[in-house]
Amino acid sequence: SRRLKDKVCYNYCMSYINVYIEHNSLALNTTFTYACDQKVEVGCRVRVPFGAQDLIGFVESVDVLPKVKNIKSVLEVLDTKPLLNEELMTLAHTISQNYVCSVISVLKTMLPPALRPSSIEHKIVYEDWAVLNDETVALTPKQKEAFASIRDQLPMKASILRKKISLSRPLFEKGVLSLEKRVKESVVPMEEIEDSSFVLTEEQQAAIENIEKGKNTVYLLHGVTGSGKTEVFLQLAKKVLSEGKQVLFLVPEIGLTPMMIQRVKARFQTKIAIYHSSLNAQEKYEQYQLVKENKVSIVVGTRSSVFMPFSNLGLILMDEEHDSSYKQDSMPRYHTRDIVMERAKFHHCKVVLSSATPSLDSYARAYKGVYQLVTLTKRISLQMPKIHLVDMKTEQVENGLSFSLINAIQQALAKHQQVILLLNRRGYLPVVKCTQCEETFTCPDCGIALTYHKKEDLLMCHCCGRVFYFDHTCPKCHSHSFYRLGMGTEKLEENLQNMFPKAYIVRMDADSTRKKNAHAKLLKEFEEKGDILVGTQMVAKGLDYQRVSVVGILQADASLARIDYQSAETAYSMLEQASGRCGRGQIEGNVYIQTFEPDHYVMRSVIQHDYFSFFSKEMKYRHLGMYPPYVYLCTVIYQDKKEENALQTAQEAKAYLSDLKVLGPISISMRQQKARVRLVIKSKDKELLTQRVWQLVHHHMRLKTTVKQDINMYPFGLEE
Ligand code: ADP
Ligand code: ZN
Ligand code: ZN
């Protein structure tokens, strides 16, 4: 390696590189200059000294002459070739610009952990492989024999080689073989299933034809639950693959759709990469390389796979496009749909968004003709489930379940049919309150009520995840008696087991699915022997089981109560999606929605499965309140130990943005013991909004404010 270093120095004279570095105190998108005497290109990572630290940076540009004095030298160049091609580098800058965030934060999101310009190292495991180096070296007869026995198997793992021949050492010493580091391969386990092929329905056929022959770039496939949207996707993909192009198939959460992934896999076999958050760094790296090296032509994955290094993308499919997991809720707060449009523009390919409950943003665009609307109105099973609104103001209730629902469960169980119950609250008791002094246990970091978890016998904050020991004594008055108000999924499961002792109950929520592949295991358990599946909103998504005849939704109003302009939309889609889990086969489906507001327009639309009536109503409210998609929106959250500091900074910001419509500041829940204050900024002009928010950021910098700010742009307005 000494020789190699001399050679590099000889070949490459000094260059001056400008580097993005990840560091909290750094101004957005400032670069730092270093001298470099090795070969280096834009898009490579370098290790550089920064203050007393060694940090990993990302090369933004390379100059021949230095622009500043007192330049430090690069410690190490980590990549021989740029990590991102031009398309992705440009995309990184676009995202930084549009979402008002640093380029380095975007790069960290785009790249798999092992390739990130990050201060934390994600180790890739390497293995030694024996490769042929020089065959002409003279060997002893014994060595020759040994070499001949493995000659055809090269390159091979060094560990295997050692097992096969005891005389391997001299082969390396004489230089016949040499060692090479290769990434250790890990296989993502996947159950094999058979590919079922159907005769397409007329509606499916028409949808495929409309999309294939259409002149538009973007299509919104609006199909009721169980109308066979996945099959439409698979057929479209097949055609594009046969033309030698690549397909990106986006799904919201892989864990919830193991069957769907298997269907894609069964259809396209080896040509597929799968990319999602529960892969480890090693696995992600491998899947990423498969795409980069053009070894696969279809990628199925969650939101981060929108950044895969495609070279020849022919189609982007986005399943359940309304799902909130497509928006990243940490920096950079991008929306996958937005990135999809950028990539489609670059690759000149079509985009198909699909959902039974499209986001208002997408449907509004389709309604205006910006996207082409394609609809599937009929279920494959032909019957839509019947919705029963259970008025909790008048209905008799036991253990949180209405008599109508209890009845329906009993009947379903008697007929060996399955039941799905949705309660969007995990844990046992959502609030723990002393009966003597009325003290409520709250999280000191977030200020919200702690949830009691019975199995672990502890209190947990569902906001920050912190857990607290609970000795069943009130810290204030030492009483041992607590109210038993409310119910989470853990308690519901216990209640159900008492009411239906013979039923096999499976619970699926964030607590029961923490381990890797837990989703898939629980779903399999339910499919094979389960009677009742209890869970949070995750049971509303995508499940396709033919024997489910009853769906019960408890506390259906909970999501309507949120103070958030999207709460009705979220509630509608959750109710409609959950309803869609039953009546998918031969048996009819019945849905029981327990509500205190049966006359709410969300409930009225769900009862009719009438998306359009919901859409029209909700658009009116959005118009009245001036919310997306009628305007572009940005929220800025100011966070500080002292609330008055956060408030003051927010007030200054509001004054600075006096030309825009700004709501707030209002105080919202704490995080990490810090007070938070929010501003909402609205504008019909997206360019102006982005420009002004950037100016605001620079304004804060000039004032050297220490209050932390968190910017969240909502990119979906209706272009006039
Ligand atoms: P969606 O995504 O619209 O809810 P799916 O694509 O999951 O619907 O399809 C619902 C069910 O119908 C699946 O079990 C699927 O295998 C089946 N299916 C899809 N298309 C057909 C068809 N043409 N004939 C028969 N069954 C079909
Ligand atoms: Zn007390
Ligand atoms: Zn907390």
The mean pLDDT is: 89
- C-alpha-based Rg, rounded: 29 Å
Across the major sheet, the strand order is 12-13-11-14-15-10-16
How would you sum up the major sheet?
7 strands, parallel
Q: What's the number of extended β-strand segments?
A: 31
Strand content: 15-25%
**Helix coverage percent of residues?**
25-40%
- Stretches where pLDDT is under 50 for at least 5 consecutive residues are 1-11
Number of helices: 20
**Content-based structural category:** alpha/beta
Distinct ligand kinds: adenosine-5'-diphosphate, zinc ion
Task: Tell me, briefly, the overall form.
Answer: globular
Structure notes:
The chain has 720 residues and is an alpha/beta fold. It is 31% helix and 23% strand. The protein has a seven-stranded parallel sheet with strand order 12-13-11-14-15-10-16, with helices on both faces. Strands 5-2-1-4-3-6 form a six-stranded mixed sheet, with no helix packed on it. A six-stranded parallel sheet has the order 17-27-26-20-25-24, with helices on both faces. Strand 21 (451-453) and strand 22 (458-460) form a beta hairpin. It is globular. Residues 1-11 have low confidence and may be disordered. One zinc ion (ZN) is lined by residues 443, 445-446, 461, 463-464, 466.
Lay out the secondary structure.
Layout: H1 2-11, E1 15-21, E2 32-36, E3 45-50, E4 53-63, E5 72-73, E6 76-77, H2 86-99, H3 103-110, E7 126-132, H4 141-150, E8 156-157, H5 158-164, H6 168-173, E9 177-183, H7 202-213, E10 218-223, H8 229-242, E11 246-250, H9 258-268, E12 272-275, H10 281-292, E13 298-301, E14 313-318, H11 336-347, E15 350-355, H12 360-367, E16 372-376, E17 386-391, E18 397-398, E19 401-402, H13 403-414, E20 418-422, E21 451-453, E22 458-460, E23 467-469, H14 489-499, E24 505-508, H15 518-529, E25 532-535, E26 548-553, H16 567-579, E27 590-595, H17 601-608, H18 611-625, E28 632-640, H19 643-656, E29 661-671, E30 674-683, H20 686-702, E31 708-714
Parallel strand pairs: 2-5, 10-15, 10-16, 11-13, 11-14, 12-13, 14-15, 17-27, 20-25, 20-26, 24-25, 26-27
Antiparallel strand pairs: 1-2, 1-4, 3-4, 3-6, 7-8, 7-9, 18-19, 21-22, 22-23, 28-30, 28-31, 29-30
This protein binds adenosine-5'-diphosphate (ADP) and zinc ion (ZN) (2 copies).
